Amino acid sequence: MIRLLHIEFIKLWNNRASKVLIFSYFILILGMALISMIKIDRPPIVFNIADQGIFNFPYIWHMNTWIASWLKLFFAIVIVSMTANEYSNKTIKQNLIDGLSKKEFILSKFLMVVSFSILSTIFVFLVSLVLGLLYSDFNEISIIFSDLQYFLGYFVKLIGFFSMCLFLGILVKRSAFALGFLILWWAVFENLIIRFTSWKLFDKEASDTIISILPLEAMSNLIIEPISKFKAVKSISSQLGTDFSRDYEVHWYTVIIVLIWTAIFMYSSYALLKKRDL
Predict the structure, then answer these.
(1) Which of 18, 177, 188, 244 has the fewest CB atoms within 10 Å around its CB?
(2) In the chain, which stretches have pLDDT less than 70?
(3) pLDDT at 238
């Protein structure tokens, strides 16, 4: 496995565009720390975002994993472009000639996906921990290390999403088309065709269940937006007489659904590669 992972990182290191995207990704995550510097000190308006509670433990775990999950597109572009380059540069054919089996080729890609996911999860955790220790009003150990479930949700979400991108890269063999297909799947298939059809054919509960098992929807449900937890939002909702609260838990069944989709995407990638004449 180490050999396969080493091969992938050599390819990655020799690709300038991939290095730029990866460094940009981590720089943007570090940019979450810049939010703490937002201050307005012009009386009578005095506002410091760090005083609003968004860096409080354990809320910061939820907020930062949700924000960071939106940045996963940077890694997605890397994975799709690297997979597409395997075909355009004929490196996949050369790897197979050199003795790498198709199963090992897919395994090397999956190991890269897992490595990216682990590295990103650890990095988001460390950035969040430092911000929390600096600005949180609650520093008890029991509070600091509560609600770490969001990192499980974040990790599984990345693996599922990157596995889907890997499958699309192998299926389409062109990075731009693969990313376009991903957007098309989300906008047209999941959010238009399936959602509209299920609303027409089933009641709301059955429709919501069908929609929740779709791949991108299931990944989205792993980490529900935390903004409605915000003090200001709660205050506004109470004044308007509405309820913005959601079910914020990372549910085991959503994790299972995403892991099943991950297995489907990886097996489909292998089956497609095995069947295809290179």
Answers:
(1) 188
(2) 33, 35-52, 230-245, 277-278
(3) 61
Report the distance separating Cα 166 and Cα 149, nearest Å. Answer: 26
Question: What is the model's pLDDT at position 43?
Answer: 65
The 8-class DSSP code of residue 194 comes to I
Residue type, 58: P
Check: pTM over 0.85? Answer yes or no. yes
DSSP 258: H
- Beta-carbon contacts of residue 265 (< 8 Å; ≥ 6 apart): 160, 163, 164, 166, 167, 215
Query: Encoding tokens for residue 241?
Result: 């007489």
Q: For residues 135 and 38, is the Cβ–Cβ distance under 8 A?
A: no
Helix axes 149-172, 175-184, angle to 10 degrees: 120
CA 226/CA 230 separation, integer angstroms: 7
Four-point Cα dihedral 124, 129, 135, 137, nearest 10 = 120
Specify the 3-state DSSP secondary structure of 176. helix
pLDDT of residue 267: 94
What's phi and psi for 36, nearest 5 deg? -65, -20
pLDDT at residue number 227: 78
The domains of the chain are located at: 2-275
Positive or negative, the CA dihedral 120, 183, 189, 170 is: negative
Cβ neighbours of residue 147 under 8 Å, at least 6 residues apart? 58, 61, 62
Q: Is 151 left (phi over 0), alpha (psi -120 to 50) or beta?
A: alpha
On whether the CB atoms of residues 216 and 185 are closer than 8 A, the answer is yes
